[in-house]
Design goal:
Two copies of one chain form a homodimer. By secondary structure, chain A is an alpha/beta fold. In chain A, 30% of the residues lie in helices and 22% in strands. Chain A folds into two domains: 7-135 and 322-335, Rossmann fold (3-Layer(aba) Sandwich), CATH 3.40.50; 138-317, Dihydrodipicolinate Reductase, domain 2 (2-Layer Sandwich), CATH 3.30.360. In chain A, helix 1 (17-28) crosses helix 8 (319-335), helix 4 crosses helix 6 and helix 4 (137-153) crosses helix 8 (319-335). The first copy, chain A, is globular and about 60 Å long. Chains A and B meet through strand 9, helix 5, strand 11, strand 13 and strand 14 of A and strand 9, helix 5, strand 11, strand 13 and strand 14 of B.
């Protein structure tokens, strides 16, 4: 963000799993910050959070969001759940604040862009909305690899099975997995609260409530959000979403049928040219936490039917799937001069 | 096995992960046993194994397979790896012993049946081979659910992503997962020998060596073995096989395109009528160890294209995927009178 004047930035949900990553990434990416305010629930208000980014080396006291006046902020990064976003994001936007919202609150609202900056930056250029929605983590990770393939080769059908980390379900879910591992080592029974069943030594094929068609909510998002991001209402994604006992990074097994025949060389060339995508011999989630890229492995074009492609994709869902993508949206808004209006 | 005279049975690989399940299941299923001999490597020879099945309540000393004379055995259950089977199964068969082999040694041999008793029992009735091959665990679990659907509705294309338990890689792999969990609890680094990378808090998208077409060996088996079992050389299965930190039971996310439209009701009726298949609201591997059935959940027929079906299938790969299926083959051979010839 060269030439961007330092911004007055707020983080809503600052003590949550994604909120902490906002703090790390604002510093890592040298985001131009004039001041930083942190907002949370009444329960979190008053907590002090240490932050040394942007030349500000001190502790910041978390403010009670319900009582906070957003006047003077340029940008607010929201990641405190759908209910909080529905209640407070419009209030922030009305006060002139650009809001990047990591919840599902506005993703399907036709007036609000849903953006992966590498995929549909044009949707930022053409909007007047001050609220921008950040897509679901699994959808971002898929589309980072799939969008350039779709544009070149026309994805006719897409089948995805996911291997999703527990941090996607929040800090309590991570604590539960770790607690169950410690209980195992101690010879104790697992305790279950965040998930109905043990996640340690298990996989759980349900993420979010069931929809009318039998999909889980997480599965339904793949088609709904991909259509909006790609601007293609014929796009189909048959997803099966599964929680696995991994701390961080989502993995996805992807099968696509293309509109025309391709080759491994062509797919690799498309992926090499895709910003934010890295090729890896064998991407595994434990090894790829705290990496900005989306890692693609195991690109296979079917030997009998060269319109059939499979690959394996892994990325840190707290970074590219959430905090990093949101900050990149803010950076793109800066490049469009939206903080100077 | 009513009316079957008690048999002289040998287990080759008796101290391995599957060998132990043979002992449990022979007792559980009241397999008619006149005598039981256990065979292992020179390293295992001399070990004493306690067994209380079949009215034999004592300790059995493991014999050195290389030195053993199989004369007098009716049946040998092999699960000691491909090399051992290639060397010793023909020797046992030549001595008149019916061999059920759980390795990959003979699966692709056109003279040797590859059998899931619920799917292709006819291949036992028509063979003269004394060696019968037990299919790969993942393929058995898939076909238990898919074969009745294929016969009724013609599976045109099949996409499978697996979530495979570490016990499929042997006892050392289970010990490694457990050891890494204990190391985590103690604050120590994971030690890796059975797998190249930690399996705790990870998933590994490679099972077996790479094939020329980019598939892993485990992935290639799906199409190769399914074609032989189904007797359909046009059957296609696009598999992605992934090891997950689960002790026992493989799970599979399955997508199929059918030759004609179906309904959820039709699929559920087919599965209810399928022997050895059980419907379950949400099958998870940790909860389904030591169960004989293959559990199917999440049956979904696509609302836009009723030729597209998805389901989730879980089964104990050491039981129906290995030891149980082998014993069922032996039971079927008994029903065919093959031990009375």
């Amino acid at each position: 963000m060269e030439n961007q004047r330092p911004l007055h930035v707020g983080i809503v949900g600052a003590t949550g799993v994604v909120g902490k990553e906002f703090l790390i990434l604002l510093e890592k990416r040298a985001f131009p910050i004039a001041s930083l305010r942190l907002f949370g629930s009444a329960r979190s208000a008053g907590k002090r959070v240490r932050w040394s980014g942007g030349g500000i080396n001190n502790e910041i006291t978390v403010e009670d969001l319900a009582q906070a006046d957003p006047t003077g902020l340029d940008l607010a990064l929201f990641s405190a759940g759908k209910g909080v976003s529905l209640e407070h994001a419009p209030r922030f936007a009305a006060a002139g604040v650009v809001v990047v919202d990591n919840s599902s609150a506005f993703r399907r609202d036709p007036a609000i862009p849903l953006v992966v900056p590498e995929v549909n930056p044009g949707d930022l250029a053409t909007t007047r909305s001050r609220i921008i929605a950040n897509p679901n983590c699994s959808t971002i990770i898929l589309l980072m690899a799939l969008a350039p393939i779709h544009r070149a080769l026309d994805v006719v059908d897409c089948v995805v099975s996911t291997y999703q980390a527990v941090s996607g379900a929040g800090k309590a879910a991570v604590d539960e997995l770790f607690g169950q591992a410690r209980a195992f080592a101690a010879g104790d029974e697992p305790r279950c609260e965040a998930f109905d069943r043990p996640i340690f030594l298990n996989v759980l094929p349900q993420i979010g409530p069931w929809q009318a068609n039998g999909d889980s909510e997480e599965e339904a998002k793949f088609t709904q959000e991909s259509r909006k991001i790609l601007g293609d209402n014929t796009f189909r994604c048959h997803a099966t979403c599964v929680r696995v006992p991994v701390e961080r990074c989502h993995s996805e097994s992807v099968y696509v049928r293309l509109g025309r025949a391709t080759s491994e060389q062509e797919i690799l060339a498309l992926l090499r040219a895709a910003p934010g995508v890295a090729l890896d011999d064998l991407a595994t989630p434990r090894e790829l936490a705290n990496r900005e890229e989306v890692f693609v492995s195991r690109v296979r074009v079917d030997e009998e039917d060269p319109r059939v492609l499979r690959f394996w994709v892994v990325s840190d869902q707290l970074w590219k799937g959430a905090a990093l993508n949101s900050i990149q949206i803010a950076e793109a808004m800066g490049a469009l001069g939206r903080f100077d209006q």
